[in-house]
């Protein structure tokens, strides 16, 4: 089985080319591929399949040739992955499977159509405008934090740390507890603290994230969008640009009246072949 490895600000993925949807991808196989000791290692798998050849993408086949079939590291599905979409676009361009007409490229996802804009090393993807819809809380190591529920095509809970709590000292080796009545299908939980002022930005936030189905990751694109939306709300703004620093690097989020642009670097780091039968079962 051919593969490519790529990452966006440290959020890493195994990319599997499967244009005609012939690959028998299963949760166990995905989990084996993403195992960091017995597999290739990754926060998730990106299967590259034509929209017309995938049941979740066929409705968008008239507007996007390619469907991003994204799986979490534990073998579960995810509706959307912002960094994954940026890496997916980098792969399409690098392999010649697509070209960015006028610098843009549409991609089909389970959360709908995503439009990408390419500018050198930076790839930006336009997603739905984040929707703040409820208050809730997360509990981590005996610390209960209020948070804001945000829909970015997938569920997020953004929790600002109180003064005196160091973001770097949080123990994210275990999943935070959350209210299953608010998040019946699980949730990505972001923990934030303010950053210093930056020129050209309406706000600056530091973030760590525990991703549903993948544990702590170095970056989460949709999570950064959720964090940016909350930061703008707290600043009494409807639109603007927020810089979000994650352990893997820096992302720039621009929230407009009707969408949200996530921008940052996306790189391909390796190609090769893997032997599925040699992967350790879950």
What's the layout of helices and strands?
Layout: E1 2-8, E2 11-17, H1 27-34, E3 44-50, E4 66-72, H2 82-94, E5 104-109, E6 112-119, E7 122-128, E8 131-140, E9 143-151, E10 155-160, E11 177-178, E12 188-194, E13 204-211, E14 215-217, H3 221-234, E15 240-246, E16 249-255, E17 259-265, E18 267-273
Parallel strand pairs: 2-3, 10-12, 13-15
Antiparallel strand pairs: 1-2, 1-18, 3-4, 5-6, 6-7, 7-17, 8-9, 8-11, 9-10, 12-13, 13-14, 15-16, 16-17
Overview of this structure, please?
The structure is a single chain. The chain has 282 residues and is mainly β. The chain folds into 2 domains: 2-128 and 266-278, Diaminopimelate Epimerase, Chain A, domain 1 (Roll), CATH 3.10.310.10; 131-257, Diaminopimelate Epimerase, Chain A, domain 1. Helices cover 12% and strands 43% of the residues. It has helices spanning 27-34, 82-94, 221-234; strands at residues 2-8, 11-17, 44-50, 66-72, 104-109, 112-119, 122-128, 131-140, 143-151, 155-160, 177-178, 188-194, 204-211, 215-217, 240-246, 249-255, 259-265, 267-273. The strands form 2 sheets. Strands 5, 6, 7, 8, 9, 10, 11, 12, 13, 14, 15, 16 and 17 form a 13-stranded mixed β-sheet that branches. The longest helix is centred in the last third of the chain and has 14 residues, at 221-234.
